[in-house]
Amino acid sequence: MAAGTDTVYKLDLDDIIAFPDTQHIPVLPPKPGESWIILGEIVRDESLFRPVYRMRDKIDCHFVVAFYTDSPAEDAAAAGCRVGHVLCIANGMRHYFVDGSNGYRIEDPSTVYVLPCSMAQLRGLNQRLCENSASGKMEQCNTCEKPATERCARCLVKYCSKECQSADWKEGGHRRECKVIARLRIWNRTDWG
């Protein structure tokens, strides 16, 4: 998948190379220049002695993610693991656990981060960004759709004024979406190899 730009958004979350589902997980580790992200919504916290989460991917397949880091509880908390949020695993390789379940064994906390949204919300935001790009709205104010030059410092969404940006943060929902949009825009500019 070719990378997009700040004004051209074309990220495809259904691309099985960049965002493989459970049926398309690479068997070998990534080659130099290759990368992928495993996406899964946390549906249940099964933690006992270490953080363990039951996940659901974009095609509704279930798997387990278990933290085996030096400080597993702290690392899971720092990532923001919560039921209903999307856990992202960079270059995840399938692991088969002794209890017969399969999923991902997290040994490096830097390979994991959480987006504060459900899988449906993530897909909806991605679709909205694609539509805004196709219709030229990426250069318009996110609140009033006037021509815009101001940007959100985190996610680069445009605004015509500080007043519109403040209103969108308080009443428009940007507070809930900002971190997710920022990550989607990073992925949009990534050449997945």
TrEMBL record:
Ordered alphabetically, the record's keywords are: Metal-binding, Zinc, Zinc-finger
| One Gene Ontology term of the molecular function aspect | zinc ion binding
Instruction: Check the record and name the InterPro entries matching this protein.
Output: Znf_MYND
MYND-type domain sequence ranges: 141-178
Classify the source by domain of life.
Answer: Eukaryota
**Which Pfam families did the record assign?**
zf-MYND
Protein's name according to its UniProt entry: MYND-type domain-containing protein
The organism encoding this protein is: Mycena pura
